[in-house]
Amino acid sequence: ILARMAPSHAVRCCQRGLSWIPVIFINLVVCWSYYAYVVELCIYTIANTEEKVIYLIVFHVFFFMFIWSYWKTIISKPASPSKEFCLPKADKELYEKEENPEAQQEILKKVARNVPVYTRTGSGAIRYCDRCQLIKPDRCHHCSTCDRCVLKMDHHCPWVNNCVGFSNYKLFVLFLAYSMLYCVYIAATVLQYFIKFWTNHLPDTHAKFHVLFLFFVAAMFFISILSLFSYHLWLVGKNRTTIEAFRAPVFRNGPDKNGFTVGFRKNVTQVFGDQKKCWCLPLYSRYKTHPSSIICRAL
């Protein structure tokens, strides 16, 4: 048994190590961009002291908010279903012994009466996770990468090496927003010096490569992040996850892509919290109601 477990354990360890490569790549790019902007552009290239100070102050504000939201998204553990969704010991034993799928469904239906579950599988059955051995709450899905069920799962993001769901979706959206602002600020302030270097109006120093490359990288990341950020803003307004956008959730009365929407304002509140003064900060937000406890339009 130990001989069989060793390879799988080694594979999992390798997978966990490799999963940090995208995060390491992003951090290396960010570290270089910090050096290129602060040292090569502001210290070595910009001659005007007032312009230099203003650029550095604003840059560090965007840089701090970007790093804060990024690492909060990374370290925030995905929220998993509570114990009330697990099968009681007696029902679990009956479910495992039963080979008839219809009989298994009857066991799940009996347990599901005591928990707030309104969604079903495509065939109308109770959603059950054999891996986690629990009845899936509404909007909950099993992440094969994290090997756990995640509440209101949106997707597993390799760039943060984490599942994006109920516990950190606000953080993820803010990460996209601040990374976009970080990139557009760099591109906008570097543009004039990019043109001057390109037209040979500045001395050909070692800073030239960093400034030219900094503009291209910032512009490229801004364009790619803009489309992703716009898409997630649309999802927030519709109160959908990426999974639900591609496959409409199925309720007792059938599939309904708008089954969880409760109006634009409340949809936004469910993601960013009740305190508007904290919407722009990557902090935990309090909610008056849990998304899965809201009575859906589809009912």
From TrEMBL:
The keyword Nucleotidyltransferase does not apply. Keywords: Acyltransferase, Membrane, Transferase, Transmembrane, Transmembrane helix. It is a multi-pass membrane protein. It catalyses: L-cysteinyl-[protein] + hexadecanoyl-CoA = S-hexadecanoyl-L-cysteinyl-[protein] + CoA. It holds the Pfam family DHHC. The chain crosses the membrane at residues 20-47, 53-71, 171-195, 207-231. The keyword Acetylation does not apply. Residues 126-246 form the Palmitoyltransferase DHHC domain. GO terms for molecular function: protein-cysteine S-palmitoyltransferase activity. It is found in: Membrane. One of its GO terms (cellular component) is membrane. Its EC number is 2.3.1.225. Its main location: membrane. The DHHC domain is required for palmitoyltransferase activity. Belongs to the DHHC palmitoyltransferase family. This is Palmitoyltransferase. It comes from Sinocyclocheilus anshuiensis.
